[in-house]
Amino acid sequence: HLPVGTEPEPGAKVITSGLGGGYPRGIPVGHIIDSRSSASGLFAEARVRLAVDLNRLEMVWVKLPDQDVSATEEGM
Prior knowledge:
By secondary structure, this protein is mainly beta. It has one domain (2-73): Thrombin, subunit H. Helix content is 7%, strand content 30%. A four-stranded antiparallel β-sheet has the order 1-4-3-2, with no helix packed on it. The radius of gyration is 17 Å and the shape is globular.
């Protein structure tokens, strides 16, 4: 989500922020193609050209959620 009034330039890099804990900071996502206000007017939307061609992936990195130490010690 982009705040209203944000107008990212076409070609601007898109990377993960690290906020929310879902993904580490700094992973390349792609580049901005264009942007506009959302239908609700509460956010801006941007189309992004992905940094990778998903049809050509051969290997991926899977980030698992952090486990509770007690669950790990119990063999779960």
